[in-house]
Amino acid sequence: MAEFKEAPAGAGAGEKLLTWVDNRFPVTKFYKDHLSEYYAPKNFNWWYIFGSLALVVLVIQIVTGIFLVMNYKPDAGLAFGSVELSIMRDVPSGWLIRYMHSTGASAFFIVVYLHMFRGLIYGSYRKPRELVWVFGCAIFLCLMAEAFMGYLLPWGQMSYWGAQVIVNLFSAIPFVGPDLALLIRGDYVVGDATLNRFFSFHVIAVPLVLLGLVVAHIFALHEVGSNNPDGVEIKAKKDALGRPLDGIPFHPYYSVHDLYGVGLFLMVFCSIVFFAPEMGGYFLEANNFIPADPLKTPLHIAPVWYFTPFYSMLRATTSDMMPFLWAFLVVVDRLVVSRAKAPGWMKIGYKGVLAFLFFGFGVAGVLMGWAGMNVPDALAPILSGADAKFWGVVVMGGAVIILFFLPWLDASPVKSIRYRPSWHLWMYVVFVIFFAILGYLGVKPPSATGGLISQIGTIFYFGFFLLMPWWSAKGEPRPVPDRVTYHAH
Amino acid sequence: MIKKLIATLLIGAGLGLAGGAAQAEEGGIHWDTFPVDKMEDMASLQNGAKLFVNYCLNCHGANYMRYSNLRQLGLSDEQIKGNLLFTTEKIGDVMKVSLEPRQAKEFFGAAPPDLTVITRSRSELGKGTGADYVYTYLRTFYRDPTKATGWNNLAFPSVAMPHALWELQGQRAAVFAEEEDPHEHGKKTEVFKGFEQLTPGKLNDHQYDEAVGDLVAYLQWMGEPAQGQRFRLGVIVLLFLSVFTLCAWRLNAAYWKDVK
User: Fold this and answer.
1) Partners of residue A433 in chain B, C-beta under 8 Å
2) What is the radius of gyration, based on Cα positions, of chain A?
């Protein structure tokens, strides 16, 4: 236990109170550890604003959410009206709260995608920051669940049918699928029961987990210290007092920095809220202004833009894709698994998985189909494998889950893109372009060319990660400096 | 290195947008542009409200809109009660339809949709706003004896709704000509050539367009009565944020000038 401190004689009431509290609760210690004596590298560039912005958006979402819940009715018969009549018309400034929340949802994904991309290019996920990254990925997963369930609540056509499509995906899981989908919906179709449980998850269950993870993310970060664009560990060079030479106290330097960034961000955010809340149909979809109608399926059902890269990967996974996917996993075996410094049983295990997937993917059945042969009925269970829709779900889920493993996939001797071989940059460029194209194709109705492009994009996405132990070790890195590169403002 | 990356990404994004714009111009007739300046014109909005109550509210409801919201169009309670309140007694009531949904389904084969947010639900990227659509739709009805209602529409072919504003516009027929498909040799397609006035309406073409413009302006306003307030508040908020950001920028510079 810390020693009991006394306020110096003649101290003001404020200082006395602080001393009293500090003896019972570590206010000053907390302030020092996380703000005034948390040393962050001084060479942050504008990419480093998105973490703070994500926190700002989180606060916007929670505060506006609290006010929305006061007027929203989670009832299939009342939900649409409680949004359109109560919140948008009756409640003073209800429209503002609602637009802030709907714009906030998209803004959250924009800042989080940029935040993740920054981590990607500067190697912020690497030792000793693996847990920072893992908690971050868990936050991203929570955010997706939060956004998906929140999207059902306005009870418009897109809310309803989007939920219907996504929940039906779970029924593609062998054996437990149909029961699982029933459990999620609470009914045989999306209905009042679904709305109620999604409401509960959206307003309390997921936010609770999310907040806990955000705290864990920040604590883990402050334990190891921030990375920086040079990927240099600032803790390696300290002054006589044990302060990193290239570090700078978070408060006031980065708090004023962030204040400036938040100002710029809010200008963009408010421009959307006040002048284009629908954002051309991307933030608030036109179809969602029609009340949910279980009897009328819209012609084209697409998730909101932030899910579409993953949705494209789901759609790309057709039975024709399965042999290529399997061949890709064989390439992963040749280039990564068989060369890895892993125990022998793991390598053999992977080959076993490949053999299993040959049948699970139905590779033989598809190849026979291409050759113009029919799969005999008796052999169909073995040769045709599981439904491609199921593998689509696996691909879509895998595309998110794979992010968790990034710290252990990267084999480059240096962290930051600045000192990696210059062709590595092109890997990231192509990765981002494919991700954007997948997102674009996901909002469009399916087409033959689009399907082919998204299949190539899907393979590239997984290749980027699963083959990373192979490609990231290649090439000659540039020398990494001892100290960060910093140019005074 | 990073600059190169950003430049490449921007070019990629530009190409993506260009591709999207090129793809959008497909299918359906071209939508006319709704005259948006009507949104600023109280007289137009009030006239639109009158047309809405007289011609639309018989079959369509606006269940998420209260009569009392019409005060925002500069109408007094007496004016609303005297001229617009036909289906209810109370000014705080929502704009319910007098027609039973079941009856409506019998009459038209489909229940007429609620119109509160109809313009917001009809916007289509690359084609136009929902107001553009409704403005086009209400001006492209024509007589078609092959349809149950005797009416058809260019913007919504085989629509179940008859021409509710026919006494204003009069009856028109559409003239189609068979032309060879420019993309496929030997295939004939019907090309719309123009309207032919069969019986005159109460309004001439120009007056009718004006009336429909007013009505659509009202529908657009009803879709979001707060939109005027939204714009005005937005300007104030952005002005404030500009000053705030300017201060934050200088504050940031003041702190960082000593960091070497």
Assistant:
1) 8-9, 12
2) 26
> Structure pTM?
0.92
B249 to chain A: closest CA residue:
A260
Q: Which residue of B has its CA nearest to A269?
A: B238
Residue B65 tokens, joined: 């809109």
Average pLDDT over residues A111-122: 97
- Calculate the alpha carbon distances from A121 to A16, A227, A229, A474, B157 in Å: 48, 11, 8, 16, 52
Residue A487 has a CB neighbour count (10 Å cut-off) of 5
**How far is residue A182 from each of residues A141, A167, A195, A333, measured CA to CA in Å?**
22, 9, 13, 37
Query: How far is it, in rounded angstroms, from Cα B68 to Cα B90?
Result: 9
Q: Among partner residues A42, A256, A429, which is closest to B252 by beta-carbon distance?
A: A256
- The CA distance from B174 to B103, in Å, is 30
Return d(Cα B112, Cα B96) in angstroms, integer: 12
Instruction: Give the separation between CA B109 and CA A193, rounded to whole angstroms.
Output: 30
Q: How confident is the model at residue B22 (pLDDT cuts 50, 70, 90)?
A: very low
B256 contacts in A (CB within 8 Å)? 253, 256-257, 488-489
**Quick one: angle between helices A206-224 and A130-152, nearest 10?**
160
Dist CA A437 CA A451 (whole Å): 11
Centre a 10 Å sphere on the Cβ of residue A321 and count the other Cβ atoms it contains: 23
**Which position has the token pair 């990254």?**
A133
For the CA atoms of B215, B216, B218, B224, what is the dihedral angle to 10 degrees? 160
**Bridge partners, B142 (sequence order):** B152
* Nearest Cα to Cα of residue B66 among A345, A90, A377, A418: A90
Contact A251, A34 (CB under 8 A): no
Q: Dihedral of the CA atoms B224, B230, B232, B234 (nearest 10)? A: -160
CB pairs under 8 A between A and B: 138
What is residue B183's DSSP assignment?
S
What was the ipTM of the complex prediction? 0.91
User: What Cα–Cα distance (Å) separates residue A485 from each residue in A43, A267, A324?
Assistant: 7, 31, 44
Please, which pLDDT band fits residue B240 given cuts at 50, 70 and 90? very high
Average pLDDT for chain A = 94
